[in-house]
Amino acid sequence: MKVILSALALIAAAPLAAQLSPAERDALLADAPADPYADRDADVRQGVDAFFAALRSDDKTALARQMVPEGVIFVHNRMNPDAPRVDVVPVAKHLENWLKSPPGLDERMDYQTVLMDGDMALVWGPYRFIAGGKTSHCGINSLSMVLTEDGTWKVANTSFTMELPDFCDELGAPEAPAQ
Question: Which architecture, in CATH terms, is 38-171?
Fold first, then answer.
């Protein structure tokens, strides 16, 4: 309620603010309350950061600590443009397969959109997947995040497109880290 009243006060003061000097206007705005959701957004981003750190880790069990095992992964596989398909993989099965994955895997994502409502969030944006120092594929990630009982954000479900590396620039995928 304070945030709404503060915003209304600022709106009501807008004609006054037009007559203020830049320094006076800055002082008035400095007293406005901070974005009440900024910390929550940062917490969600921290959960996604932890997910990608686990993915990059040589500890193949780390990823399981960042995902909800009951979740589902939808892979919109467009690697063969003549035969696109959608693969549905239970997170538990993915984690089982992940234990056998080679070292040196990396994924970089640009968190273009973060939406939140209470204990659920969605993080959306382009990504690049790197294996053996080379781009394997890229696409768009949609990560469904859930706030767990211990207060951390984890990946519950995910959908992502898998595109050939030729499409990475068009999709806005982050650059691969320098080797």
Answer: Roll (3.10)
Segment 139-143 long-range contacts (CB within 8 Å, at least 24 positions apart): 139/76, 139/78, 139/163, 139/171, 139/173, 140/171, 141/109, 143/48, 143/51
The model's confidence at residue 20, banded by pLDDT at 50, 70 and 90, is low
123 close to 110: Cβ distance less than 8 angstroms = no
Comparing CA positions, the residue from 46, 48, 94 lying closest to residue 70 is 94
DSSP state string for 85-141: EEEEEEHHHHHHHHTTSPS-EEEEE---EEEEETTEEEEEEEEEEEETTEEEEEEEE
pLDDT tier at 123 (50, 70, 90 boundaries)? very high
Contact of 76 with 68, CB cutoff 8 Å:
no
Mean pLDDT value across residues 11-32: 56
* Cβ proximity of 137 and 164 under 8 Å: yes
